[in-house]
Amino acid sequence: QVRLQESGPGLVQPSRTLSLTCTVSGDSITTDYYYWSWLRQPPGKGLEWMGAKSYAGNTYYSPILESRISISRDTSKNQFTLHLTSVTPEDTAMYYCARVTVVGGADYWGQGTQVTVSS
C-alpha cells in the first residue's frame, strides 16, 4: 500500500517561505515512471497543480508559480519537499502531495495539510 503524508507548518507569515514535506511509504520516489506532485485547493476554489519531481529527478512547475516554487527530494528518506517563496494570503489553501502516473492521473494522495498565510 502506497502512503503519502504531508508535514509542515500550518501557519506562515506573509512574505516568508512555505516549506512542506511529503513522506512516502510503500513505494520509492525513484520508481519508474511516477511523478511526485504537489497540488493545492484554496478555500472555495478548484484544485491547482503546482509542480512535480519525476522519478528521474526532473522538475516541472506550473507557469503561474514558476518564479516562486521549487521542489526538492531526499531519496535516502523517500521524501520530496515543496518550497514556495514570498507567500501572501492568496496562498492559503489545503496542500496535497500525490503520486501521478505517466498517463497523468493521480492514483495516491496524502490526506492534505491546511496552510494559512497570516500575520
Features:
globular, mainly beta, 119 residues, single chain, 4-stranded antiparallel β-sheet, 11 strands, 51% strand
Blueprint (SSEs and pairs):
Layout: E1 3-7, E2 11-12, E3 18-25, E4 35-41, E5 48-54, E6 59-61, E7 69-74, E8 79-84, E9 93-100, E10 106-109, E11 113-117
Parallel strand pairs: 2-11
Antiparallel strand pairs: 1-3, 3-8, 4-5, 4-9, 5-6, 7-8, 9-10, 9-11
Shape: globular
The sequence of SSEs as H and E is EEEEEEEEEEE
The class by helix and strand makeup works out as mainly beta
**Major sheet summary line:** 7 strands, mixed
The unreliable regions are none
Provide a compact summary of the structure.
This protein has 119 residues and is mainly beta. Helix content is 0%, strand content 51%.
Structural account:
This protein is an all-beta fold and 119 residues long. It is built from no helices and eleven strands. The chain has strands spanning 3-7, 11-12, 18-25, 35-41, 48-54, 59-61, 69-74, 79-84, 93-100, 106-109, 113-117. Strands 2, 4, 5, 6, 9, 10 and 11 form a seven-stranded mixed sheet that branches. Strand 4 (35-41) and strand 5 form a beta hairpin. The protein is globular and about 40 Å long.
